[in-house]
Amino acid sequence: MNILIDMNLSPDWVEVFERQGWQSYHWSKVGDPRAPDIIIMDWARKNSYLVFTHDLDFGIILATTGIGGPSVIQVRTEDIMPQTLGNRLVQIIKQYESMIKSGALITVDDRKSRVRVLPFQKMS
Fold first, then answer.
1. Which end of the chain is more exposed for a tag (fewer CB within 10 A), N or C?
2. Which pTM does this prediction carry?
3. Rounded CA gap, 21 and 17, in Å?
4. Whole-number Å distance between alpha carbons of 16 and 3
5. What are the distances in angstroms from CA 40 to CA 43, 59, 81, 86, 112?
6. Per-residue b/e over 87-101, b at no fewer than 16 CB within 10 Å?
7. pLDDT 10s per residue in the chain (124 long)?
8. CA torsion, points 4, 76, 34, 67, in degrees to nearest 10?
9. Nearest to 103 by CA among 39, 43, 17, 45
10. Is the CA virtual torsion 96, 116, 61, 73 positive or negative?
11. Are 74 and 54 in contact (CB under 8 A)?
């Protein structure tokens, strides 16, 4: 599993993921911290990384473009620190690993997680 951590999340997440044996980078170590989300998405897709973010724009990009990846995990909780959310997020990633590999948008809030398989179906 390869995970790219968005700028709006702490670099401390790298350690959480690497303890699981997953390759991870915080975007600040990969690219321009001011890069638009579409550039981050493009890098993740080309390098086979899922995007982990607290930003809803990544889900919007997936919905409006109809692309099949990269997979995105968007956290919609107030406390986004690894000390609070780390164990739960690791369990969610393990639970949905096959969907992540195929392409998915996973939304995590305070009570539950939801998965949508990519690419999104266009409404007619």
1. C
2. 0.94
3. 7
4. 11
5. 5, 13, 21, 22, 26
6. eebbebbeebeebbe
7. 999 999 999 999 999 999 999 999 999 999 999 999 999 999 999 999 999 999 999 999 998 888 889 999 999 999 999 999 999 999 999 999 999 999 999 999 999 999 999 997 654 4
8. 60
9. 45
10. negative
11. yes
- The tokens 């909780």 sit on which residue? 77
Phi, psi angle pair for 30, to nearest 5°: -110, -45
Q: Interior CA angle at 69 toward 90 and 84, to 5°?
A: 20
Q: How does DSSP classify residue 7?
A: T
